[in-house]
Prior knowledge:
By secondary structure, the chain is an alpha/beta fold. The chain is about 50% helix and about 15% strand.
Amino acid sequence: MQQRIGRVTTGDGTELAVAEIGAGRPLLYVSGWLGHLQLSAEVPEERAFIDMLGRGCRLVRYDRAGCGLSAPSDRPPSLAFELEQVSAVADTLGSEPFDLVGASLGAVVAVAWAAEHPDRVRRLVLYGGWVSGAALSPRSAQEHILGLVESHWGIGSDVLTDIFAPDADAASRQAFARYQRASSSAATARALLAMGYQLDVGDLLARVRTPTLVVHRDRDRATPLAQGTALAEAIQGAQLVVLPGRSHLPSFGDTAALVATIRRFLGLRAARASTGVLTARQKEVAALVSRGCSNREIAARLGIDERSAEGHVERIRLRLGFRSRAQIAAWYVAQAGRASGDADARRRELR
């Protein structure tokens, strides 16, 4: 993922960081709660999701005010301020209608922006969104989470990661919790989360005229499926696609199925099928994975840094269409066994 990072300024002077990858028709992505354009490349699952989504288009993302590489603001979070930030980024995309994808909190923001700018959006995709934030969980549970984030951001980020990405392994959950903490302060995180709980876009949905796809996982632990269904029912002509899974974050769980669903609706080509062919270096890495080596151990053995080793493992996983290191290890053992059997057969033929 080779991204280009620039800056835009909102009407009140707040400076936002914007990242682009690829070329072609613009696709503006409004992320969920927190984000960091630079550090997202260090979370393998997040990097893979963005890379798959951005193929064949000009994918544009931004860090909201107070998060990641964007400047803080004295203004408290609000839907109005969120819409101003989307507008500042949208103004850089040209005069033609563009595709708009929102995930989680970003879905709520995206649907509100599309309602106000019907001529600017070509197609709208809402993943893991909701109509009413108050309906996401009991008020007592929301207050508990907000208090935890405010009083102990470390524990709060761990708890939220368990809710957002229950399908992730322990190492990935730890990495994503660190990513959340690096993306914003505890005060900003609490304020944005509280805003999400307060947002209600029910009165805006009838104004959406853009062709819309609503995607939701059936056992999403952060946003009940009923909220996704309510979004689709209230937007005229909206399609609803329900995918299996528990993870709220789009970069965890069956990400390939989610991305394929989105790309199909947007008219983008399906991701190229896995060839199962690895480079020489990737074969070395796969061999070490099959021996149970960690990324740090792989890096030490090959004389590379740990981040490069992590990137190799992720590219192997994507190329082979796998979801885990265990699958890579099993594949390599099977390939090695098959190669050994073929060599034995050739030797027998030569006797």
